[in-house]
Specification:
This protein is an alpha/beta fold and 357 residues long. It contains 14 helices and twelve strands. A seven-stranded parallel beta sheet has the order 3-2-1-4-5-6-10, sandwiched between helices. It has a three-stranded mixed beta sheet with strand order 7-9-11. Helix 1 crosses helix 8, helix 7 crosses helix 12 and helix 9 packs across helix 12. Bound molecules: nicotinamide-adenine-dinucleotide and 2'deoxy-thymidine-5'-diphospho-alpha-D-glucose.
């Protein structure tokens, strides 16, 4: 099918996956149109993450608009100003631990914000079929697996945290806007991403930075929860493939086919950070610290992404070893970025909540 787009709104483009998606569009996807990064710049959004793109394309093919996706007049004005033919919706509250401590922001942004964005798109794109709303979602909407089995696109929704419940609601709204109003949509549910520019509250960057700073490495519960890990650029190439070639009204699972127990992943990270920083691994191992489990901690996620592979010919390009090495190298070389994003409110939040465990 190969849809073509002239003007894309990327919501959440100052966050981890969104900033990498914008870079992927300009550097690898061969996209020749305009990108509007629509982001509220919450604690997780940082314009530094797209500074290189701004320097090269700013005012010509790259534009930034600071706005909350739930603020209807602002979103309408941005649609009116740029007349986009596609939205890639990544903006969200994304951290499970935060959703347990304060669910309200997750309902506001992930549910109400997605609703507002959908409704503005529906009004702006009345009767058009040459447009697309792509919704970026998570495998967490499917709940938790036992020792065997995989999530497929037909798995029933069974969200268990306020984060996953809010993402499940947003997925249902996206599908409802397609079925009820005919809005052209595609949807993807992806597993755990890792890579450059990830906010250091998530497992991989948190562990790397704590090692470098000689802080405890907090492992939740018995450390045997399993996640499926995918390098962020492979997620973004999948989203782009779905946007170009995916069937409207359908969802696609994206995964790394790369399952790891948290404690084993931590062991790999310890080896890599030790090698890169010239530190004996035993020094980092002595920092491993088992802490109280996350309430409602999902045990295992695993993805069957055969629809995406068979129908759209997508595959993962990065091995776990090369992706993790690249990620560790990036965090070692970008300590000032980490210090800036962690300054202020977040540091206080982390210290309060980590010491409470
Ligand atoms: P992130 O927390 O790094 O970034 C989120 C971005 O959204 C930030 O730039 C933030 O400023 C912006 N934002 C938040 N609330 C907003 C609002 N109300 N209006 C406008 N902008 C707002 O998140 P991420 O890890 O990059 O995740 C991006 C998307 O991908 C999310 O929808 C998430 O659910 C989904 N996802 C993430 C993963 C993962 O492993 N990180 C995996 C699967 C799916
Ligand atoms: O599966 C996709 C999801 O992956 C995305 O939808 C979410 O936005 C993203 O945050 C991520 O959710 P997780 O909860 O799996 O990611 P997190 O990095 O918070 O945790 C990964 C695993 O590591 C999980 O089993 C909890 C555990 N963990 C996490 C932290 C932060 C620890 O053991 N210690 C920690 O300090």
């Amino acid at each position: 099918m190969k849809r073509k787009f002239d003007t894309l709104i990327v919501t959440g483009g100052a966050g981890f996956i969104g900033s990498n998606f914008i870079r992927y569009l300009f550097e690898k996807a061969g996209f020749e149109g305009k990108v509007i990064n629509l982001d509220a710049l919450t604690y997780a959004g940082n314009l530094e993450s797209t500074e290189d793109i701004f320097r090269r394309f700013g005012g010509k093919r790259y534009f930034f608009e600071k706005a909350d996706i739930g603020d209807r007049p602002s979103v309408e004005a941005i649609f009116g100003k740029y007349k986009p033919d596609a939205v890639v919706h990544l903006a969200a509250e994304s951290h499970v631990d935060r959703s347990i401590l304060g669910p309200e922001a997750f309902i506001r942004t992930n549910v109400m914000g997605t609703f507002t964005l959908l409704d503005v798109a529906r009004n702006a794109w009345k009767d058009r079929n040459d447009v697309l709303f792509h919704h970026v979602s998570t495998d967490e909407v499917f709940g938790s697996l036992g020792d065997s089995g995989y999530f497929s696109e037909d798995t029933s929704y069974d969200p268990r945290s306020p984060y996953s419940a809010s993402k499940a609601s947003s997925d249902h709204l996206v599908m409802a806007y397609h079925h009820t109003y005919g809005l052209p949509i595609t949807l993807s549910n992806c597993s755990n991403n890792y890579g450059p520019n990830q906010f250091p509250e998530k497992l991989v960057p948190l562990m790397i930075l704590n090692m470098l700073e000689g802080k405890p490495l907090p492992v939740y519960g018995d450390g045997k929860n399993i996640r499926d890990w995918l390098f962020v650029e492979d997620h973004n190439s999948a989203v782009w493939a779905i946007m170009r070639d995916g069937e409207s009204g359908r969802s696609y699972n994206i995964g790394g086919e790369n399952e790891w127990e948290n404690i084993k992943l931590l062991d790999c990270l310890i080896e890599l950070v030790a090698e890169a920083s010239g530190t004996p691994p035993a020094q980092f191992r002595s920092l491993v610290h088992y802490v109280k489990d996350r309430p409602g901690h999902d045990r295992r996620y695993a993805i069957d992404c055969s629809r995406l592979k068979k129908e759209l010919g997508w595959k993962q390009e990065h091995s776990f070893d090369s992706g993790l090495r690249l990620t560790v190298g990036w965090y070692l070389a970008n300590k000032p970025w980490c210090d800036r994003v962690r300054s202020g409110a977040y540091r206080n939040w982390l210290e309060e909540n980590y010491t409470a465990r």
